[in-house]
């Protein structure tokens, strides 16, 4: 629920007394906030972080932990993969659009290896091992995995495939409780604390404070229902996450996600976006969303996905987030997995990080014709789909959608269908328009003095498409920039 406190900026002249002061004030103690606080402190600033909940971590600490990095990181090289900033950029521009921010993506790719080294220097551990099976994330403590469909059509023809999902090493991961993202956050918070970064918890940010020149000089929050004023001598960094749980904003900007928020925490209410908008901040890609497809990839890859007309529409061996977007955006959220008994049993026995996403078949039959009838599909629709698929699969090929030959196998009998209609959840990717130095831009195109932002309250490297790790990746990368920029302010 969005707070009813007025969101218009407060004049510094009306603040009789500041309750807290710091050079740099960071709103939010997730991945963007902690990265900003580290770099601001290293630049010599006194840093105060304001966190809405009772502890650090945000959505990052509950996430699977992918950080999207490439261009030839030490981990990529150790696992035997070649990559370059140019190759990484080619993939990202193709996969994360349309309208992807080329300046930001170029900057991100060129700085990716350095950013990996920065994370390692901060104590984030990575195991030099690659997990090559289909899945949402590695089930064990492996450090590298394909996380964006880089090795699937159409992207494997556009750029040379290279895995870029870097995962901090951690045993006993429980995504949604304490995922791999925890082992990203914990060392970074430890680093921030060693640098003298202070934190105040249960602080709900309300609005920004500006001086008579329009410069942001502070922030108003509420702590246990009491109004608290915080002065920022150099700058304010907004890092409070997406607007996935603000129903009004979802309805206005990303209506395809109405009733299906996921992969975010309920504190993602868009407040920072609204606070900056009240100062005239520009926005970008507010309709962009990631969409998770909640079925185990070990099953999906072994069958064929069809829509409500019984037709295939996506290569089943691609990134599950791409499957989710293709299903929700282009197939009216209608999806069924057609799979034979042997393949289902093989997929159900395969190692996975998400056994709880193994869906049971809803229909089973001895023939495709019988299955088609039981599902209520038009006569001949599913039969023709399976016939065409099997004809080419007998030769190990998929000329229609180009699923890789290793996963192409004729569908036999008995055959079943998994009902995956409505199996999508998502979170928002759009937000404040920022520069590569994490300055928040006014609608005029000029930076708003004293205001910086990073993470999911901004529009980062994703403009529509997604790859797992781009949120933690650009959140930490541009969080660092925000901290550096804010510390430099006079």
TrEMBL record:
It comes from Rhodococcus jostii. Pfam families: FAD_binding_2. Residues 23-469 form the FAD-dependent oxidoreductase 2 FAD-binding domain. This is FAD-dependent oxidoreductase. Transmembrane segments: none annotated. Its cofactor is FAD. Keywords: FAD, Flavoprotein, Oxidoreductase. NCBIfam families: PRK07121.1-3, PRK07121.1-5. It comes from the Bacteria. Gene3D superfamilies: FAD/NAD(P)-binding domain (3.50.50.60), Succinate dehydrogenase/fumarate reductase flavoprotein, catalytic domain (3.90.700.10). InterPro entries: FAD-dep_OxRdtase_2_FAD-bd, FAD-oxidoreductase_2, FAD/NAD-bd_sf, Succ_DH/fumarate_Rdtase_cat_sf.
